[in-house]
Amino acid sequence: MLRQRAISSVGVVVVFIVPALFGSPIFTIAIGLIAYGALVEIYRAFQRINVRPSLWSGMLALIALFIVAGTDAPFIGLAGALTAYTIVSLAQHLLKRDIAGSLVDWVFSLTGLMYVGLTMMHFVLMRRLQGPVDTDWIVRVDNVIGDGGAALGLGWLLYVLSVTWATDVSAYLGGRRWGSTKLIPHVSPGKTREGAVAGLIGGTVAGALASYVFGLPVPLALMALISFAVAIATTIGDLLESLIKREIGIKDMGTFIPGHGGILDRVDSLLVTVPFTYYIALFLDSQGWP
What is the rounded CA–CA span in Å between residue 3 and residue 5? Predict the structure, then answer.
C-alpha cells in the first residue's frame, strides 16, 4: 500500500510541477482539466444522496473562472462569471416539467463549483504573481519556459506544494508509527492526533527549507511560522473532504489515482492551502517584503 501511494505521489507531482514550470497558458489548461475531473467526481458523489447537480453549467462556469484567472481580466470578470452562473444554474430548472428538488439541485451545483472551481483557480492566480526571487534557477526557468517576470509566483507555488505534501506524508507515516488517539473520529476515523502533530512538524520543517530553496524573499523565521499555519490548513483541507465523504457515505471520491482514490482525494488539502498561501503572499507583497 505504501509503495503504491509513493508511486502515485510521484505521478501527481509530475502532473502539477511540470505544467507549473511552463506557466500560462499550459498551466492554466492543465489545472483546469484537473479541476474539471474533480468537479465531475464531487457531482457524482452528490448523486448518491439523490441530488442532481448540473454538470454542463458547472463546466461552463469553471471555464469562465479559469479564463479570468489565466488572463489579465479585471476582478469584475470574476464577479460577472459567478453572478451569471448563479442565475443560469437556477434558471435552467424553469425548463423542467417537474420542478421537485430543483432548489436542492441548484444549491449542490453551486456548492460543487465553489468548493472545486473557485479554490482551484487560485493555483493559476498564484503562478502568475509577478516579482523576483532570491534563487537564480527559478528566475531562469521562468524566463526561458515560463511566464517571464513571474518567478515569485513559481516560487510560492512550489513552496505550497512542498509544505502540503510534506504535511500529508508526515501525518501518514507518523500516524502509522505512533498513532493511537483519534483526532476527530466522527469525521475521519483513521486520523490520529499523533499523526497530525507529525504532519505539523514535517510541514513546518519542509516549508522552511522550501522557502530557502525556492528563494522566497521573506525572512526564514517568518516563513517557518507561515509554514506551520499552512500545515494546519493542510490538515483542515483533508478533514473537510472527509466530512463531505462521511456525510455522503463513501470512502473515496473515485478510483482515478491508485492508492489515493480520486482526483479530489489527492487535491483536497490543496483546495485550502493554495488560496490561503496566495493571500498570505499578496499581504506580504503589500507590506513591501523583504
Answer: 5
What residue segments make up the domains of the chain, in order of their start?
24-127, 131-290
Render pLDDT for 137-163 as a digit per residue (tens, 0 to 9): 999 999 999 888 999 999 999 999 999
The burial class, CB within 10 Å (0-12 / 13-18 / 19+), for 182 is: middle
pLDDT one-digit tens code per residue, 97-107: 889 999 999 99
In whole angstroms, give the CA distance from residue 234 to residue 271: 9
Q: Count of CB atoms within 10 A of residue 190's CB?
A: 12
* CA angle centred on 260, ends 240 and 43, rounded to 5°: 55
Using pLDDT thresholds of 50, 70 and 90, give the confidence band for residue 128. very high
Q: Where are the alpha helices (DSSP H) in the chain?
A: 2-22, 26-47, 55-70, 75-91, 102-112, 119-127, 136-144, 151-178, 193-213, 220-248, 263-267, 270-286
